[in-house]
Specification:
Shape: globular
Strand order of the largest sheet: 9-20-21-19-18-15-16-17
Length: about 400
């Protein structure tokens, strides 16, 4: 008999959370708090302490359920978004809860769910989209399908018509490009479209086969409209400015900008009169940063490899990748504490782990979440730490 489950929350990753009659927590995609659902029996996978399942029938819809506007979300089970079926207020509440619960459970912090800053735009905010390619059996070798993955079939790629969270300019570029896929290098494996900060449109084609020898032909075919990961840049600026504001007066103070990329945070710190040392392993990003911001010192290296060579800081701003801080960075910051740390995180779990490590010599003074990625389960978090 198919079991009926009441969903009570949203988990990291965007799945709804409920509980089976045997006591196991069950994770069900595309559900919202308050939904009463009948599980699809053939989808139920029981593990020792939890289960996963798919919706068989929505017996009673929760108060936050809405109709997703993107046809791909429903018809193709697009995995690019996870929360289009949840009203935006519900998305914000879910992300607050995810951050707070993760910091309490994994970080052992006594903290309430943080305030969350809502997005400037709920739709059409992405300035970069990466698509997978499948096929390549045609006479000209063009990929038969270029699009996105289904969440429940990760090896399946459906053809993309439109992405509702991607900038209109990129989707216009995609419409121009779709009839000309044969001009891309073959066999095509991945295709990325992006807007740079001057709103020039870029096509990045990845192939396991021949080099891209006819890029000029494509450029001519598209009337010179292209130039051979900036995501939601507006909200990124809001996040960085709030983070830097928490440092207070930094005039004439040395501030490390670790994992600094092209120098967006460094630019704000320079505006405030700080002496900035920015470190990032991406040499291309560092080169761009040097050109746009000569007032800061940029170093192309892994942060853990160069900390010992840097001048002692008054404060540190860190924006590490999803994997969080390297152990050596955490060790340096705990063995030689600085007055203030700002940790900008794209993953609540690794943030919680790192805050637990830093808790030896630092107190968490403030946490704020920022919704850089509406309609998805991703959330940006800023933690403010001071030396104990």
């Amino acid at each position: 008999m198919n079991e009926i489950v009441t969903m009570t929350g949203i988990a990291v990753g965007g799945d709804g959370v409920g509980r089976l009659s045997d006591g196991r927590v069950v994770f069900v995609p595309r559900t919202v708090p308050g939904d009463r659902i009948r599980l699809r029996e053939d989808s139920l996978q029981r593990h020792r302490n939890f289960a996963r399942a798919e919706v068989g029938e929505i017996v009673e819809a929760g108060p936050g359920r809405v109709t997703p506007p993107c046809p791909h979300y429903v018809a193709d089970h697009c995995g690019g978004c996870q929360l289009q079926h949840l009203a935006y207020d519900g998305q914000l509440a879910a992300k607050r809860s995810i951050v707070g619960e993760t910091l309490r459970r994994l970080g052992k912090l006594q903290i309430e769910d943080p305030e969350i800053v809502e997005a400037l735009e709920e739709w059409r905010y992405r300035s970069k989209i990466s698509m997978a390619a499948k096929g390549g059996e045609g006479r000209q070798g063009a990929a038969t399908v270029v699009g996105l993955h289904a969440y429940d079939r990760p090896n399946f790629v459906f053809p993309l018509a439109d992405c509702h969270i991607t900038d209109f300019k990129l989707m216009a570029l995609w419409r121009e490009l779709r009839p000309r896929l044969a001009l891309l290098p073959q066999p095509l494996t991945r295709l990325t479209l992006r807007l740079d900060r001057e709103e020039r449109r870029h096509i990045i084609a990845e192939s396991a086969g021949e080099p891209w020898l006819n890029a000029d032909e494509l450029r001519r075919a598209m009337h010179g409209s292209i130039d051979g990961e900036i995501v939601n840049p507006g909200m990124g600026s809001v996040t960085r400015r709030w983070a830097v504001d928490q440092l207070g007066d930094v005039r004439s103070q040395t501030v490390w900008d670790l994992y600094g990329g092209i120098g967006d945070t460094a630019a704000i710190l320079v505006e405030r009169g700080a002496n900035v040392v920015s470190v990032d392993a991406d040499e291309k990003a560092v080169s761009w940063g040097r050109e746009r911001l000569p007032a800061a010192r940029f170093i192309a290296a892994r942060a853990e490899d160069v900390l010992a060579t840097l001048p002692p800081p008054h404060a540190v701003v860190m924006n590490p990748p999803r994997g969080g801080l390297h152990w050596d960075v955490s060790l340096r910051l705990t063995s030689e504490p600085v007055a203030k740390l700002i940790y900008i995180s794209c993953d609540p779990a690794t943030l919680a782990r790192d805050l637990a490590r830093l808790n030896v010599n630092y107190d968490v003074k403030a946490v704020r979440a920022f919704d850089l990625f509406p309609q998805t389960a991703h959330v940006e978090t800023v933690a403010v730490l001071e030396a104990a």
